[in-house]
UniProtKB/TrEMBL annotation:
The keyword Hydrolase applies. CDD domains: YtcJ_like (cd01300). Keywords: Hydrolase. This is Amidohydrolase. It comes from Brevibacillus nitrificans. One of its GO terms (molecular function) is hydrolase activity, acting on carbon-nitrogen (but not peptide) bonds.
């Protein structure tokens, strides 16, 4: 069947035909595009279906280059702490959850951010114990790199001062009493998490289905997602996605990053980077090199300004990084490394340079702090920077206190990166930041929160709306070496399109927030059509 999408303002991001009025689709791909009159004349036969877009703006389908659909799914089963702004609110929320939870049942939550607290400071472990004395509590910070637990959780974990803590993790101790404060940094949370009862397969599947549908409603046609740690390995993760996407036709195109301990199992299953089909594929090997600015665990080349002597956390030393990269390269797989601090990036690039490139691009995820000398090292055809524009909203202005103003001016320098010729892909890292790509695009263009009115943090790094849209479309295709089949509206490429309620190229930046996703089209099929959703709100 032939479908002709007409009466649209299509921004193709294909330099050969930058804008068109109509796109012709057959068998999930674009077969022609151009003026409305020409497309109807050439393809408007009796069996063709014509769909009028009413003059709406259309771009290539939006792609989120880095998120965690599994965490979005499981977040739906836990407490959402993103709106908490005081210690009192947090403690009250825990108490209310305890009142409705069976004794010894786990209380889990995610999304707290002490930088948003307007009073009270951080709760102590004693305060957590008072509101939930009979329930183990684990609350994950918005960044995902810090957890808050109570004594019951530590008791169930069998914590003792001489306990082996996973490499790169820290159980924070009170300097006076030498007892746990309730704060766990990085991998230390694993001592707790291994004792949390696993949701059933059906619970995982139902919540993942909702997460996928949610992503499509936001205008996303594809995502690159890291889920093996949540879903218990590649076997179950692949089964969940295969059933939902290939068998039940949920449609969202998903590229699965492989957490490094699972490389061997991937090989045993006969899988590899690129394995799968146009809807579900295996992606790069995911590795963590450091932590976050919020937890003061991002690895820096000089100490934190507000914590002299602390340069952050090295999740793996260079010898271990080498072994992980060697195993990935033995499987002929690209590497996707979480690098927020500049020293973490140095360590990763130094180690990566000891190996030949593979067919698919390596990915530097976040690349939050960049020194000028590191720009040239990132400009290579075999590498892409996987950036999250909403981080500037979550991290400023407090990040200047953490690392000092001079280094803050070198953080999230996307304009400089693009001008240096570095390939960039745009993502959210949801649920660390909101999933909605229009919020990420707004952050890339304004470098401030939706409610702010200033010119932006380090406004010289503001992107144009076209640049922002490109990193969330063509950039996402570059990250998985799929630029020949997606990322632009071109003949022969997938008919993946996002339709907007107004022309973003012609409105003021803040009008992005008043824009609705009218339709999400994947493979030529309308997978979501707006029934009157509200304007974007910050989640």
């Amino acid at each position: 069947m032939t479908t002709i999408y007409t009466h649209g303002r299509f921004y193709t991001f294909d330099q050969n035909q930058p804008t068109v009025e109509a796109v012709v689709v057959r068998n999930g791909r674009i077969i022609d595009l151009g003026s409305q009159s020409d497309m109807l004349l050439q393809w408007g036969r009796a069996d063709a279906v014509v769909k009028d877009l009413g003059g709406s703006m259309v771009t290539p389908g939006l792609i989120d280059s880095h998120l965690h659909l599994s965490s979005i799914a499981t977040k739906m089963m836990t407490m959402d702490l993103g709106s908490i702004t005081t210690k009192g609110q947090l403690l009250q929320a825990i108490k209310e959850k305890a009142d409705e939870t069976p004794v010894n049942g786990w209380i889990q939550g995610r999304g707290w951010d002490e930088n948003r607290f307007t009073e009270g400071g951080m709760p102590t472990i004693e305060e957590l114990d008072r509101v939930a004395p009979h329930w183990p509590v684990i609350l994950t910070r918005v960044c995902g790199h810090v957890d808050m637990v109570n004594s019951k959780a530590l008791e169930i974990a069998g914590y003792s001062p001489d306990m082996d803590i996973p490499s790169g993790g820290t159980v924070v101790l009170d300097p006076q009493t030498k007892r746990p404060t309730g704060m766990l940094l990085e991998t230390a949370a694993e001592i707790i998490e291994r004792h949390i009862p696993e949701p059933t397969y059906q619970q995982y599947k139902d919540s993942l289905r909702e997460a996928i549908r949610y992503a499509i409603r936001t205008g996303l046609t594809g995502v690159h997602t890291e889920d093996l740690r949540t879903f218990g390995g590649i076997d179950q993760t692949w089964q969940l996605y295969d059933e939902l996407l290939n068998q039940e036709q949920e449609r969202l195109r998903c590229n699965l990053l492989i957490y490094y301990p699972h490389i061997q199992r991937v090989r045993e299953l006969g899988m590899y980077a690129g394995y799968g089909n146009e809807t579900l594929q295996i992606g790069a090997v995911k590795v963590f090199a450091d932590g976050s600015f919020g937890g003061r665990t991002a690895l820096l080349s000089a100490p934190y300004t507000d914590d002299a002597g602390n340069v952050g956390s090295e999740i793996h030393d260079n010898a271990r990084l080498y072994e992980i990269f060697r195993e990935a390269r033995a499987a002929n797989m690209p590497i996707a490394v979480h690098t927020i601090g500049d020293l973490a990036l140095d360590n990763v690039l130094d180690t990566l340079d000891r190996f030949p490139a593979v067919a698919l691009r390596d990915r530097m995820i976040h690349t939050s702090l960049l020194r000028p000398d590191q720009l040239a090292r990132l400009k290579r055809p075999t590498m892409i920077a996987d950036i999250q524009p909403r981080f500037v909203v979550g991290d400023f202005p407090w990040v200047a206190d953490r690392i000092g103003q001079d280094r803050a001016d070198q953080a999230y320098i996307w304009k400089t990166m693009l001008e240096a010729g570095i390939m960039c892909a745009g993502g959210s890292d949801a649920p660390v930041e909101p999933l909605e790509p229009l919020l990420g695009i707004h952050a890339a263009v304004t470098r401030r929160a939706p409610k702010d009115t200033h010119a932006g943090y380090n406004p010289g790094q503001n992107l144009t709306i076209e640049e922002a849209l490109r990193i969330f479309t063509y950039g996402g295709a570059l990250a998985t070496n799929e630029e020949t089949v997606k990322g632009t509206l071109s003949r022969g490429k997938f008919a993946d399109m996002t339709v907007y309620s107004q022309d973003l190229m012609k409105v003021e930046a803040d009008e992005i927030l008043n824009t609705q996703i009218e339709r999400t089209i994947i493979g030529g099929e309308v997978c979501y059509e707006n029934g009157g959703n509200k304007n974007l709100v910050e989640i």
